[in-house]
Design a protein that fits this description.
Aspartate Aminotransferase, domain 1, 2 domains, 7-stranded mixed sheet, 13% strand, globular, binds pyridoxal-5'-phosphate
């Protein structure tokens, strides 16, 4: 039987046509009509005023933080359960990521723990819309208002997700997205930053283009970066964006099949808060407490099904371990221990989902027998 991967790009729209146009016209570097087209259309998709395309989702975070003047000795509160880029991007600014625990049901930043982590050095909060589910933004925005903090949304995994009927992308001061190969839409490597703040958008454009003064060629008032997205990347991303509704519909359909097939199996299913639209970037489950998660993943692998463990919590990783000190993160620790991402690509059929669900049930039964 064919292996079922966790994620797989689908490149069957205008990707080839647009890339060929780049090759035919010689527009292959960091500017061109696909870059501007992508920026315009992605901004419209998110309901944001501005979008700035960059090389990947990690530099999108870095540029967003720099544009907010995050620098040495500043603290940025991030969730303990996230992808490493959220923490690293803060370190690139010589600032300090401060870890907060997560909500036990939707696995996003816990506002009560955010409050506890605020110090006089806190400058920003970075909610991460993990695995496609948005963070509950009102409490975060409220804390930000009270303490005069900026809000950077790491939306790398949440294209099209909605908070109270509004698309992610302009709720905080700035949001960033990734177009990595396994994300909801892809350009291979790629990223984009969205904001409603004109000044911030202009600053990010300067930063991504080596810091050059937009009105004075080869005049560099600041140290910038080369974070430009190429027209070839943008050609792929734009073709993907043309079908983004389809990509999201497919994920919702796959999630609804999993919800049916896995009901009553003993695993904890992902939820959708009543104020949210979860886009199910990855369909993520928790194995029962008594189950050995890593062994469960080996059983799935033997059945020809790829799975992924949840991210390690940041506080256990060597670069962040010492700073976390004796602080405990009970929820993220538990979720990271029990969490598994199941195959979630837009290509999955109902038969695939049935096969995955049957393998989940079988793996759990076998583990019960062994005990
Ligand atoms: C993928 C991802 C990123 C980084 O994106 P890249 O494009 O791979 O650099 C950042 N944050 C989160 C939460 C991600 O999942």
């Amino acid at each position: 039987m064919e292996r079922i991967p966790v994620a797989e790009p689908v490149l069957t729209g205008n990707e080839k046509k647009y890339v060929n146009e780049c090759l035919d016209t010689g527009w292959i570097s960091g500017s061109g009509k696909f870059v501007t087209g992508l920026e315009e259309q992605f901004a419209a998709f998110c309901g944001a005023k501005y979008a700035i395309a960059v090389f990947n989702g990690t530099v999108a975070l870095h540029a967003a933080l720099l544009a907010l003047d995050i620098g040495p000795d500043d603290e940025v509160i991030i969730p303990d359960l996230t992808y490493i880029a959220s923490a690293n991007s803060v370190m690139y600014c010589n600032a300090r990521p401060v870890l907060a625990d997560i909500d036990p049901t939707i696995w996003t930043l816990d506002p009560d723990d955010v409050r506890r982590k605020i110090t006089p050095r806190t400058r920003a909060i970075m909610p991460v819309h993990i695995y496609g589910h948005p963070t509950e933004m009102d409490p975060i925005l409220e804390i930000a208002r009270e303490h005069n903090l900026r809000v950077v949304e790491d939306a790398a995994e949440a294209h099209g997700a909605e908070y109270k009927g509004r698309r992610i992308g302009s709720i905080g001061n700035v949001a960033t997205f990734s177009f990595f190969g396994n994300k909801i839409i892809t350009s291979g490597e790629g990223g984009i930053i969205t904001t409603n703040d004109e000044g911030l958008a202009a600053e990010i454009r300067i930063l991504k283009g080596q810091g050059m003064d937009p009105k004075r060629r080869y005049w560099f008032p600041i140290i910038g970066y080369n974070y430009r997205m190429t027209n070839v990347q943008a050609a792929i991303a734009l073709a993907q964006l043309e079908r983004v509704d389809w990509f999201i519909e497919r994920r919702l359909e796959v999630a609804s099949w999993y919800n049916e097939e896995l009901a009553g199996s003993g695993v904890t299913l992902p939820v959708q808060a009543e104020w949210a639209r979860n886009v199910y970037w990855l369909y993520s489950i928790l194995v029962p407490e008594s189950v050995d998660r890593d062994h469960f993943m080996q059983q799935m692998d033997a059945a020809g099904i790829e799975t992924r463990p949840f991210f390690y919590p940041m506080h256990v990783l060597p670069p962040y371990h010492d700073a976390a000190g004796d602080e405990k993160y009970p929820v993220s620790t538990e979720m990271a221990r029990r969490g598994v991402n199941l195959p979630s690509s837009a290509k999955l059929t109902r038969a695939d989902v049935k096969r995955v669900a049957a393998a989940v049930r079988q793996a759990l039964e076998q583990q019960v027998k062994i005990r």
